[in-house]
Amino acid sequence: MISALFVSLVLSSLVSAHGWLNSVAIGTQTFKGNVPNASPTASVIRQINDVDPVKGANNSFLACGQNAQSATQVASANPGDNVAFSWVNGDAGPWVHNTGPMMTYMASCGDQNCSSFDVSTASWFKIQEQGRVTPGGAWAMSLMNSGAPANVTIPSNIAPGNYIIRHELLALQIAQTLGGAEWYPACVQLQIGGNGTGAPTSDELVKLPGAYSDSDPGVLVDAYSNPNADYVFPGPQVAAFVNGSSTGTADANSTASASGSATAASTSAATSGSSGSCMKKKKRAADQAQLPRPRTVSRVMKNIVIA
Q1: Is 124 domain-assigned?
Q2: Region Disordered: which residues (predicted)?
Q3: Number of independent structural domains in the chain
Q4: Entry pTM
Q5: N or C: which terminus of the chain carries fewer CB neighbours within 10 A?
Q6: What is the pLDDT of residues 16-60, one digit of tens each?
Q7: Which residue in 264, 10, 6, 279 sits closest to 149, CA to CA?
């Protein structure tokens, strides 16, 4: 027989290994998210119903997370604002995973308020991508293990309007086998002001799902065997209008010109890198307060059989 204590420890470990977007700070405002599957309160973050990762590049939940529901509020933002995404694990502690890239997309909601926008119809463009902090070193995702947020800059020349901003963590710890990659996406509803004119071109827009394949070199990858190898980011390149819109600290494998480092005291370890379309082309050409725990446990935990 498996002891109740052992089962409890296993379940706790599995929950802790997953997580969700707990809060987001936009400019000077901070917005809380809802615990997955809890009774929702007003938020700008779309609520998911399960802390499990999204598995499979064609999963319908790839856009905003597990069965994500529209949020009731929309945050006001300005071009050039910093957006700080604070992720937590399933026990509401610091983010656990430390291997894999972070990418950020945006999508226009058109003339409608984003609280009623159906993301299955969204056309997404990438504004940021970040891999390792230093060549062969830690991934930027690992900086969140200390509780640091992941910081992204809204392009300073973006056209005003209604947008969803989507932050994505791609955990690669078991990505050496087909279907092993684990996506953690989260969506925040914005209304951006200003008088910018920046916008993606039609060939920079992608669908989610649709932008990735399970066999992409950045999705099906052994992240441990050759840490010095350049990481090939999946999906589209960062939209051209973003380049030069803001100057930020880029990691060794980042091709984004938007600021995208996970920042806290540990960010002093990050190195500055060049950015822009030239860098992107070269890299692609080279090798293409205490929260309650979620009400529901993950599918992994549901499959545990007690003998």
Answers
A1: yes
A2: 249-294
A3: 1
A4: 0.81
A5: C
A6: 579 999 999 999 999 999 999 999 999 999 999 999 999 999 999
A7: 264
